[in-house]
Fold this sequence. Notes:
The protein is an alpha/beta fold and 210 residues long. The chain is built from seven helices and 14 strands. 25% of the residues lie in helices and 30% in strands.
Amino acid sequence: xxxxxxxxxxxxxxxxxxxxxxxxxxxxxxxxxxxxxxxxxxxxxxxxxxxxxxxxxxxxxxxxxxxxxxxxxxxxxxxxxxxxxxxxxxxxxxxxxxxxxxxxxxxxxxxxxxxxxxxxxxxxxxxxxxxxxxxxxxxxxxxxxxxxxxxxxxxxxxxxxxxxxxxxxxxxxxxxxxxxxxxxxxxxxxxxxxxxxxxxxxxxxxxxxx
Length: 210
């Protein structure tokens, strides 16, 4: 299994390529706002982009969808509760002082329990609202689960909830009831920053220790 994560764009969003070892088709999680970086990494592995999935609708996670679709025709998926964010990329661009990219096309609206598949790869959708109303976590099974938590859970932190649509009680509930249900050895690849584990965050994350 190929699981390659790298930081892209102004805010260094963690973008991940998922593919089977014997497949030429990949899923990209959170392409950020830098299509070229993702395309270069895909080309280096001899992969073509089949599907784009996004953990939430903030510009630093979805900004590259349109450019990737123009180059590859890939399908994109998001939770419908974040449509208002996707429809307001120009408004979001004012938050970070950059240009607004064209809006990408969403081919599938994901909900709790949905599975996104490509050859040899399947990820399950968990709805984990709080950072945004439509925030998602993607679960990849293997020797131990890998959780792509977007901006819900970080090493030593949680996502901010002061932006439009954010809710502090919701994010804590999502983390404590959904993510902390996984075993300590579950890997966590967040939307920004270093990888961690559920066990580490259960023990050391200051937002969870109380």
